[in-house]
Design a protein that fits this description.
The radius of gyration is 24 Å and the shape is globular. Helix content is 50%, strand content 14%. The longest helix has 26 residues. With 484 residues, the protein is of the alpha+beta class. It folds into 4 domains: 122 residues, Serine Threonine Protein Phosphatase 5, Tetratricopeptide repeat (Alpha Horseshoe), CATH 1.25.40.10; 122 residues, Collagenase ColT, N-terminal domain (Glutaredoxin); 129 residues, no CATH class; 87 residues, PDZ domain (Pdz3 Domain). Helix 2 packs antiparallel against helix 3, helix 9 crosses helix 11 and helix 12 packs across helix 16. It contains 21 helices and 15 strands.
């Protein structure tokens, strides 16, 4: 007797799916199962994937792979059960289902035809359930924004103006990234893809999310967690409206492109592209990535003879990339991408990499091809460029000019004024507990960004400050003074 696998029931169950991202699946166990699949040992692969499901039942990865193992053995009922669970938990890449060679038998079943017919309803149900989850991170004063073109739902604990600015930032980043890097994305049909949820909660909501994702041990270091894009959940959570939001939203776009291509790009490519737009200057309303505290790290590594080769960077796997000296790794990836951008090679590199990904997933050969160099020349040109990069102010002591005030990081939309020395109040127009969000229209969402931006000016210059105090937004003209 055939089991009734109702797609309608699957839609209703989506509202009951877990709302937290599971810990990463142990890569070595998953790799073992995939290796068994590739060698045709499907029964043994099934046993391995059953262990994955037992270890991480809330992750769709094990359920999906288990469905593939069943499908290759002709066990269609079991394959449907496992795939239904993967979809209920959060798997939502219909293109992957349609092209995966391990799912040929599953696709021949009427269940799959019905899934295709009902996919739009599934996506609609997921959108509603995902919205409910991210709104649970914001207890009061919630601001709601949507973008149909980008298929983005944004929920914010910030005030209406700051939320509008965050939405405008996302749209600006998308325009820049699809023009410079992901040039095929604007032509992609997103109608069958899930909406991206973006949550900009207050500190309480962010702490609740961070604890649910990273565990209770993170409670003592919440300030060190900027946010994350959880691809399984299609959910982006950011503690600030600046570097973190920009970085994670590029991950959103990059994952869309990787899903389109059926690829998983090297860690240095993923993190280098995402961090590239963290720091920019606005030129004619367009963001232009610039040197930052990350490029300072690379300059210091080069100065002391400890900068790894580009080839070494390209071979680092994700676990090592994020766990072993991550600041140095991220800095190297961003700096290399900035070099490609400034030498007009970034687009050529990315296009070559996507086209030849199967031949060299590391991307190193694509670097050589895009730059037209041999390994030694590539290394020498890059290092010469790094040496010529300007050092960027990172602390107040690096500045020539200041506002003559005491500041600290605020709640995500700017830096908080904690002290006004001498005539600073008259000279700047600021008040205690004001939050400076922009200088001359350039965002200053955190201390790093504030110091980098103000580091471009000299004593005696006048700047326009955009700031808020509570929910009241103001502007004032300020004269910069020399640092003591």
């Amino acid at each position: 007797m055939r089991t009734n696998h109702s797609i309608a029931a699957l839609i209703s169950l989506w509202f009951m799916a877990p709302g937290v991202l599971a810990d990463p699946i142990p890569s070595e166990i998953e790799a073992q199962g995939i290796e068994l699949m590739q060698s045709g040992e499907y029964q043994q692969a099934e046993e391995v994937f059953e262990k994955l499901v037992e270890m991480r039942p809330e992750s769709f990865v094990g359920h999906y792979n288990l469905a593939a193992a069943h499908s290759m053995q002709g066990e269609i009922e079991e394959a449907i059960t496992s795939m239904s669970e993967a979809i209920r938990i959060g798997f939502s890449d219909i293109a992957q289902l349609r092209r995966d060679p391990d799912l040929v038998s599953l696709r021949a079943d009427e269940w799959f035809a019905e899934l295709n017919r009902q996919w739009g309803e599934l996506i609609k149900a997921r959108r509603e359930s995902d919205i409910a989850r991210i709104e649970g991170l914001i207890r009061k004063g919630i601001e709601r924004r949507s973008d149909e073109t980008l298929r983005v739902e944004l929920r914010s604990a910030h005030d209406p103006l700051a939320t509008d600015e965050a939405m405008a930032e996302i749209e600006m980043i998308a325009k820049w990234a699809t023009g410079e890097i992901f040039t095929d994305l604007p032509r992609q049909d997103l109608s069958e893809q899930p909406w991206i949820m973006i949550a900009l909660p207050d500190r309480a909501g962010f702490g609740m999310w961070a604890t649910s994702v990273f565990g209770p041990s993170v409670r003592g270091s919440i300030s060190s967690v900027g946010g994350a894009y959880e691809h399984q959940q299609r959910r982006l959570v950011a503690q600030d409206l600046g570097a973190t939001l920009r970085h994670e939203f590029v991950h959103v776009l990059h994952w869309r492109d990787m899903n389109r291509l059926g690829q998983a790009h090297a860690p240095w490519v993923q993190e280098g592209l995402a961090s590239l737009i963290e720091d920019y200057d606005l030129r004619g309303g367009t963001p232009d990535p610039v040197p930052s505290w990350r490029t300072n790290i690379v300059k210091r590594l080069l100065d002391v003879g400890r900068l790894p080769s580009i080839e070494t960077l390209s071979q680092i796997e994700m676990n090592a990339f994020t766990a072993k000296r991550p600041l140095a790794q991220y800095a190297q990836a961003r700096t290399l991408m900035l070099w490609l951008l400034e030498t007009n090679k970034l687009r050529a590199f990315y296009q070559h990499y996507c086209k030849h990904y199967s031949e060299d997933p590391s991307g190193y050969q694509s670097l050589l091809a895009a730059t037209g160099t041999e390994p030694e020349s590539l290394e020498n040109q890059y290092r010469d460029w790094v040496r010529a990069l300007p050092s960027v102010p990172e602390t107040g002591s690096d500045l020539q000019a200041t506002l003559g005030i005491e500041i600290e990081n605020g709640t995500g939309d700017g830096v908080l004024v904690k002290g006004l020395q001498g005539d600073a109040r008259r000279r700047t127009g600021l008040r205690l507990n004001a939050v400076i969000t922009h200088i001359n229209g350039q965002p200053t969402r955190d201390l790093f960004e504030f110091i980098r931006v103000i580091g471009q000016y000299r004593p005696g210059q006048r700047v326009t400050l955009h700031w808020r105090r509570g929910s009241v937004h103001s502007t004032s003209e300020a004269t910069l003074i020399a640092r003591d």
